[in-house]
Amino acid sequence: MAADSQWLTFLVLFLPFFAAAAAPLLTRSFGHKAAWILAVFPAFIFLHFIGFAAPVANGETISGGYSWIESLDVDFSWYLDGLSLTFALLISGIGTLIVLYSGGYLKGHAQQGRFFSFILMFMGAMQGLVVADSFLTLFVFWELTSIASFLLIGFDHSREAARRAALQALIVTGAGGLSLLAGLLVIAQATGVNSLSALLAEGEGLREAPLYFAALLLVLGGAFTKSAQFPFHFWLPNAMEAPTPVSAYLHSATMVKAGVYLLMRLNPVMGETFAWETILPLFGGTTLIVGTLLGLRQTDLKLMLAYTTVASLGLLVMLTGFGSHLAVEAAVLYLVAHSLFKGALFMVAGCIDHETGTRDLTRLGGIGRAMPITFAAALLAAFSMGGLPPFFGFLAKEEIYAGLATGSFWGVLLTLVAIIGNGLMFAIGFAVGLKPFIGAASDTPKHPHEGPILLWLGPVILATTGLLAALFSSLSHHFVSSPMASAVVGEPVEISISIVPHVGLPLLLSLVTIALGIFVYLTLERGRASMATVLAAIGWGPDRGFDQFVRGVIRISAVVTGIVQNGRLDIYMTVTFIILAAALFVPMIGFGELPSVPAIAALSFHEWAILVIAFIGLGAVVYARDRLTAIVSLGIQGFAVALLFMLFGAADLSFTQFMVETLSVVILALVMTRLRLSPADHRPTGQKLLDFSIASVCGAGLGLLLMRVVEVPFDPTLSTFFAENSRVIAHGRNIVNVIIVDFRGLDTLGEIAVVMIAGLAILALVRVRAGKPGNATKTKTVETGGEA
Amino acid sequence: MEPIFAVTVAVFFATSIYLLLSKHIIRILLGVAIFGNAVNLTIFTAGRLMREVPPIIPVDLDMPAGATANPLPQALILTAIVISFSFFAFLLVLAFRSYQELGTDDTDGMRVAEPEGEELPPLGY
Fold first, then answer.
1. Residue B17 and residue A551: Cβ atoms within 8 Å?
2. What's A714's DSSP letter?
């Protein structure tokens, strides 16, 4: 491709984020009509990608990118083939309609601008995810979709249910994202490539790598959580807390399909192994059955649709993992059909909710006369969902049965699963798309009437597309289905199925499905009641498990915090000094750095005397019976230290030390004698022994360290420098003073600052009295005597 | 000479740590004061000892005539003494004020920041 096109694609990838930034401002100026302006952005993206349809249909791929982190060999790159292009078209196309729909649905909402912003942000994330080539680009956009969906599900954040659903989605898909990251890293490790296109070119490399199984499990962890496979399906129905445009977009057409996209993308390099063809159909099939059964139980239109989405995703995973070309073709057809009809039905459910005030199936009836356009769109979508001709869903279902009914045991079993699942989905589809509109008119909270164009435009276009795509199947196959299936299979595939029914096994199975669906539709009430009984009997589900998990984590962290931060200073100190002792002795012994036994140098009598005085002072501080003695003894050791400084040529130190010790003793005596403190040490003997041991070991360690230090030859460079330059450069004869005020003057400034800050802090402490009423009762018991 | 000072330093450290491990604020304060002296003596000794010759240049010379005591550790310690004194004063006032507010000098009783039997954080969403 030409360079300017690469630049344009790069811009297109970021266009939704620009639109997201502009959305609040536009909404402030134009209100809900801003939707018309904002929809231009995704529409432009759609047109941009349409331009690639012809070359991709001819088997070309479009890739491009820029170097991102050169030193780590990470690129920001994209790769468009049949698979990613179809997804990109779905995302931008449905995105355009969703933006318009949001304009009508949230008209007059105070936070509509924010909503536009979030949903465009999400669109950008999803767009990037499906066209990403390098692993890191893929992962970044993957996580962005999780974050954007968190914001959207929790949009109505004043309700606890919305907050819970948002957090749940974030935790489940976020954990899956980490699993995916690990999986991608394992793949990169196993094959040495770090982009999808290179991986696809690799061929057999990954399947034969010893790390294949680990990579598979980790990638499946990401895909299954994102695509709500059992037992991670629970977050998806809860995500219905989000406003309906979000449900229609994220939870039908796009985000939840990210997992399926990933599986399809990796099918050529990871598929066709025993593990792949066992795990995927197993989980997919279970999800299909569980999803439809749970959906049957619901009366809320959105929840019913949400569970059929779970089921559809199960079906897609099952088909992707089945392993035959026909099954993959069926998955591709069904994915496109599902995006169209599910998006339409969700929007219809939103219209009904918006115009009648309820989404409860049992309270709705006969609104078809008041809402004819919505009814038409709903019916078209339901026909497609039910797999009736002449709709795209019919093509998909024919292909599903053609792909599954292979005669093997596994094939027969999965065919049965598919029949049950499709039959139930047929029933639910018509329960949503037909039931509310016919029958006796019911009493709804609002008087039903047709919604504005913004509300019905989306469903009508999507439902009609589902019809047109089937009527002109050769065209849609050429540009969409066949290129996509080729990308998933890994070699050119031609899809030829059309709406003209061929008498054969698939048609027969379709008829069985339809019969089952009609039966379930007619006995919907009874089926719902029996499902409710079964679920009540089971009682526990992953959804409740999530609550228990979250509470468990909170409790565990509270316990751990209680142990680590127990609030007892003596324990903190004990731990600190034990670690200090270990840090001193372990390296010293481990590296053989213990000092040798030193020769005892002769000290003069007065030097010994001063040392003895210091030791007596120390002993007295520890053993003093009352505070005053202890404080005075503190002075003794301090003065002894001052004398030592004096004797060893440090006159300045000595004077300062004398001054400071005197002040310390005086202040301590002044303050402490005002407090009625118990003088003695209250520790029990065992505690004293432990503390004594710790203190002795630490002291010995520090002493040995110092002994070792003085054994090493002394390097007098710095001292010599100061001695030589003190007079010459700084014109001072007292070298210590010159260092302090001249050579290291800035340090002294810092020191003065420290003293000043300490003084200010002391002032603040003294000034801030317990004047607050809440503290008065607490301080009543305090007898200080120093208050005067 | 230095090994004897090392032993002295060890005794200073041991005493101060023993006091720091106690539960009573006033003993901890005494420990802090002694700890400062122990550290200063360590720096002093690590810079090697030299008897009775302060690092001062005579009037008529540009450099000290012979060997003097090492001036660098002295400069460091001088700073350290002042800072440890202000630190000590701050701790003292802090201890005094907390005693006034809390009515105890036992660190086990000072549980304002980390109260005993603290409630679980909210379990909802």
1. no
2. P
pLDDT for residue A299 is more than 50: yes
pLDDT digits (tens, 9 = 90+) for A625-651: 777 888 889 999 999 999 999 988 888
Does residue A340 sit within a domain?
Answer: yes
Q: Is A618 within 8 Å of B93 when comparing Cβ atoms?
A: no
Task: For residue B32, give how far its alpha carbon lies from the nearest alpha carbon of chain A (Å).
Answer: 11
**Residue entry with tokens 């720091």:** B20
pLDDT value at residue B26 = 84
In chain A, which residues have their Cβ closer than 8 Å to the Cβ of B113?
Answer: 567
Out of A681, A697, A715, a domain closes at A681
Which residues have CB under 8 Å from A587's CB, separation 6+? A593
Of A467, A493, A522, the domain-final residue: A522
CB contact under 8 A, A681 and B22: yes
Closest CA to A162 of A171, A172, A153: A153
Same domain, A514 and A624: no
**A765–B93 CB contact, under 8 Å:** yes
Mean pLDDT computed over A368-383: 87
Q: How far is A568 from chain B (nearest CA, A)?
A: 5
| A547 in any annotated domain | no
Burial class, A196, CB count within 10 angstroms (exposed 0-12 / middle 13-18 / buried 19+): buried
Count of domains observed in chain A: 2
Res. A749: pLDDT tops 90: yes
Same domain? For A615 and A482 the reply is no
Question: A663 and chain B: CB distance < 8 Å anywhere?
Answer: yes
Bridge partners of residue A76, in order along the sequence: A66
pLDDT tens digits along A532-579 = 888 888 877 788 888 888 889 888 988 888 888 888 888 899 999 999
Q: Which chain B residues have a beta carbon less than 8 Å from that of A644? A: 41
**Within A271-391, where are the H helices?**
274-297, 301-322, 325-356, 372-386
Domain of residue A330 covers: 274-522
3-state secondary structure string across A195-206: EHHHHHHHCCHH
Min distance A30 CA to chain B CA atoms (Å): 35
CA distance A633 to A631: 5
The DSSP secondary-structure symbol of A784 reads: -
Domains and their CATH numbers in chain B: 2-52+69-107 (1.10.287)
Same domain? A636 vs A493: no
Which positions 603-622 of A are in contact with B (Cβ < 8 Å)? 603, 611, 614-615, 618-619, 621-622
- Which residues of chain A lie closer than 8 angstroms to B29, CB-CB? 668
* Same domain, residue pair A625 and A512: no
Percent of chain A with pLDDT over 70: 96
Span A55-89, pLDDT tens digits: 888 888 888 888 888 887 788 888 888 899 999 99
Task: Quote ipTM for the complex.
Answer: 0.92
Read off the pLDDT of residues A478-507 as tens digits, 9 standing for 90 and up.
Answer: 888 888 888 888 888 888 887 777 778 888
Q: Which residues does A157 contact at the CB level (< 8 Å), separation at least 6?
A: A163, A166
Is residue A231 a part of any domain in this protein? no
Residue type, A421: G
Most confident segment among A174-188, A284-298, A405-419: A174-188
CA A184 to chain B, closest CA, distance in angstroms equals 32
Contact assessment for residue A638 and residue A657, using Cβ atoms and an 8 Å cutoff: yes
Residue A382 lies in a domain: yes
| pLDDT for residue A2 is more than 60 | no
Instruction: Compute the nearest-CA separation of A223 from chain B (Å).
Output: 26
- Please check whether residues A616 and A471 belong to one and the same domain: no
Could you tell me if A356 and A473 lie in one domain?
yes
A627 and A501 belong to one structural domain:
no
pLDDT(A603) > 90: no
DSSP A739: I
Residues A298 and A420 in one domain: yes
Q: Do B93 and A762 touch (CB under 8 A)?
A: yes
Q: What is the pLDDT of residue A679?
A: 56
Contacts of A574 in chain B (CB under 8 A): 21
Is the CB of B100 less than 8 angstroms away from the CB of A782? Answer: yes
